[in-house]
Amino acid sequence: LKHSIHPQAHLDQLTEGILRGDRVLLGQAITLVESKLEKDALLAETLLEKVLHKTGNAFRIGITGAPGAGKSTFIEALGTVITGSGKKLAVLTIDPSSQLTKGSILGDKTRMEQLSKNEMAFIRPTASSGTLGGVAGKTREAMLLCEAAGYEIVIVETVGVGQSEVAVKDMVDFFLLLMLAGAGDELQGMKKGIIELTDAMVIAKADGENRSRASEAQAVFQQAFHFLPPSPSGWKSPVLLSSALHSEGIEEVWKLMLGYETETKTSGFFEQNRRSQRVSWFKECFAQELQQDIESIPALRAAQKDLERAVMNAAISTQVAARKLLGDYFTYIRESGS
Amino acid sequence: LKHSIHPQAHLDQLTEGILRGDRVLLGQAITLVESKLEKDALLAETLLEKVLHKTGNAFRIGITGAPGAGKSTFIEALGTVITGSGKKLAVLTIDPSSQLTKGSILGDKTRMEQLSKNEMAFIRPTASSGTLGGVAGKTREAMLLCEAAGYEIVIVETVGVGQSEVAVKDMVDFFLLLMLAGAGDELQGMKKGIIELTDAMVIAKADGENRSRASEAQAVFQQAFHFLPPSPSGWKSPVLLSSALHSEGIEEVWKLMLGYETETKTSGFFEQNRRSQRVSWFKECFAQELQQDIESIPALRAAQKDLERAVMNAAISTQVAARKLLGDYFTYIRESGS
C-alpha cells in the first residue's frame, strides 16, 4: 500500500482501478480493507461507500468442509467450469490455520495452480484476524470489492471446523458442504449445526475404490437430509457425488447452483435473504465497533475481563455485571469529551 | 405486586420468602422480574443479586417440540416421575402464542392438571416479551429464582418454532426434542438447526396404531443422528419412544437425563458448559441493556430504524451505518450529562 501519495489520490486511484477491474488495485484495496491501522479503516470505509452502487450483483457461494476434504481441488475444478461458461470468478479463502503474508497470494497460487493462471479468475486468501466477526468482516468487504470489480461469481471458502461457517452462511446466497466418503467419521471435529445450514452436500473424491463408499454415504446423507427441517426458502438440499480427478459431477454441481439461483430469484427468497443478511450485518458491525472501542480503552478492557471472570464463577449476576460495564463505558465517554 | 409497602421492605420479604420456598412469594418475585417498569428492574436486579448464592444447584432441562407434539402431557408424566422420586420440580413455560394474564397461572393449571396440584411442583408460564433475548432473559431469571427457592429440577418448555430454542439451549444442561411419529412431516415449520442442538429426541404418543410408525421414525432418526457431528460433551443423542397415556418410556427418559447429568459432571463438561453459558449470557445482557437504552431515546430509535432501512436497501454500507449509529449514541451520552 503506497502512502507516499496523498490518501485522497490513493483512494481515487483504488476506486477507479476497482471499477475498471484492475486485479492489482483490487488486491491492494482488499489489503486496505484488511488493515488494522485506524487511518486505513476510515479510508477503507470511504472506498466501500464509493463502490457500493456497483456491489450486490454477484452470485455468492460459500464452500466449507473438513480439512482434507479436497476443497481446493474441488474449487479449482468448479472454477474451471464456471470460467469456462464465460463468467468471471473471484475465490476468497478463509483459512485460520494458514500463515498468510499480508497481501500475498502465494499460498493459494500453490493450492489452485490452474485457476490462479486463469485470466477470468481472481484468487485471494483473506486474513483471518483472531476475533469472530473479524474473520467474516474482512471477507464480506473483500467480497463487495470483488463485485465492484465485475466478478459475477464469488466463492468464499472456509474450513468447516470453526466459528466462521455461520458467518459465511450469513454472507452468501448458496452454502455448500464438501465431504469425504467415510460414513460419518469425517464429521468428527466439525461444528454442530453445520449440516442443517447447507444448501447442498457434495461427496468428493468419488472415484476408484472410493466410489462405492461414496454412493453409500450419499444414500445415507440423503435420508438424513430428509429428516431435517426444510429450509425457509423451500429448497431441499441434495447430496451429490463428484470426482475432481475425473472431472465428474462438477458440471452437475454448477447446474444445481444455477438452478437454486433461478428458483430463489423467482420466488423472491434470494432478495429477501440478501436484505435480512444486510440488516444482521449492520447489527453485527455495530456490536463489533462497540467491542473494539471498549477494547481500545485499557481501563474498560480490564473491567470487562474482571466482570467476565466474576460472571463465570457466578460471583456476580449477569445483569448487574452488564449494567456495570455499560455504566463504566458511559462514564468514560462523558469524561473523554466530545 | 404490593407497592403500598416500602420497596426495601418488600424486597426483604421476597428474598426471605424465596429462600424459605414460599410459592406465592416466588410467584410474585417472578412477576417482578418480568415487569417492564424501570423501578421494578432495579428491584429485580437487587433481588437476584441477593439470592445469587443459592442459585445454580438445579438440573436444568429444556424441552421443545412442535405445537401438538404433546409437550404438556409429556411434561406432566415426566414431572410425576420426577416428583415421585422425591425431587422438587419447577416448570417454566414459554409460549409466544398464548395470551397470558400477567402473574396468572390459570393457563397452565388447565394444561397440566395433575402436576399443578402436586405440592412438589411449581408451574409457571413466563411472559413472552416480543424481543428475542427478552424471552430468554426473563425465563433465565425466573429459573434462578426457582433454584433459590429450592427446586432441584427446572424444566423450561418452549415451542420449537421460533427464535427461543437457541436461547433455551443456552440456559439449560440438557435439551430434549419431543416429536410425533409422522416420519418427518412434523419437522415442517420447525427451526433449522434444532435437531443438532438436542441431547435426546423422544417420539411421543408411541401407542396404539401409532406404535409401529413411532418405531420406524425412531430407527430413521437414530440413523440421522449418527450422521450429525458429535456433541462437544461427547454425548451421543439417543432417540426414545414414550407414551404418556400408558406411562411408557417416561421413567427411561428420566433415567437417561440422570445418566447425562452424572456423565457430564464426571467429565467436567457440566460445569464447563455452565461457565461458558454465564459468560455468553453476560454478553447477551450487555447487548440487551444497550439496545434498550437506544430504544428508550426517541431520536436514537428513529436513527436506528432509518439506518436499518438504508442498509436493507443497500443505500449505505453496513460499516458506515454502524459507525454513524455509534457516533449518534456517543453524542447523546455526552450531551445528556453524567
Report on this model:
Chain A has 338 residues and is an alpha/beta fold. Helix content of chain A is 54%, strand content 12%. The first copy, chain A, has 14 helices and seven strands. The first copy, chain A, has helices at 7-20, 23-34, 38-51, 71-84, 106-111, 113-117, 134-148, 164-169, 194-197, 211-226, 250-267, 269-295, 298-312, 318-335; strands at residues 59-65, 89-94, 121-126, 153-159, 174-180, 200-204, 239-241. A seven-stranded parallel β-sheet of chain A has the order 3-2-4-1-5-6-7, with helices on both faces. In chain A, β6, α10 (211-226) and β7 (239-241) form a beta-alpha-beta unit. In chain A, α1 (7-20) crosses α3, α2 (23-34) packs across α3 and α4 (71-84) packs across α11 (250-267). The longest helix of chain A has 27 residues, at 269-295. Chain A is globular. In chain A, 43% of the residues are buried.
Task: Please render the helix and strand layout as text.
Two copies of one chain form a homodimer.
Chain A: H1 7-20, H2 23-34, H3 38-51, E1 59-65, H4 71-84, E2 89-94, H5 106-111, H6 113-117, E3 121-126, H7 134-148, E4 153-159, H8 164-169, E5 174-180, H9 194-197, E6 200-204, H10 211-226, E7 239-241, H11 250-267, H12 269-295, H13 298-312, H14 318-335
Parallel strand pairs in A: 1-4, 1-5, 2-3, 2-4, 5-6, 6-7
Helix pairs in contact in A: 1-2, 1-3, 2-3, 2-7, 4-11, 13-14
User: What oligomeric arrangement do these chains adopt?
Assistant: homodimer
Estimate the helix proportion of chain A, in percent. Answer: 40-55%
Largest interface: A-B, 67 and 67 residues
The count of strands of chain A amounts to 7
Tally of separate helices of chain A: 14
Strand order of the largest sheet of chain A: 3-2-4-1-5-6-7
Helix-strand pattern of chain A, N to C? HHHEHEHHEHEHEHEHEHHHH
Please mark out the parts of chain A with pLDDT under 50 across 5 or more consecutive residues, or reply none: 97-109, 130-134
- Spatial separation of the terminal alpha carbons of chain A: 32 Å
Alpha-carbon Rg of chain A, integer: 22 Å
The largest sheet of chain A, given as strand count, sense and whether it forms a barrel, is:
7 strands, parallel
Overall morphology of chain A:
globular
Mean pLDDT level of chain A: 84
Proportion of beta-strand residues of chain A: 5-15%
The helix-and-strand class of chain A reads: alpha/beta
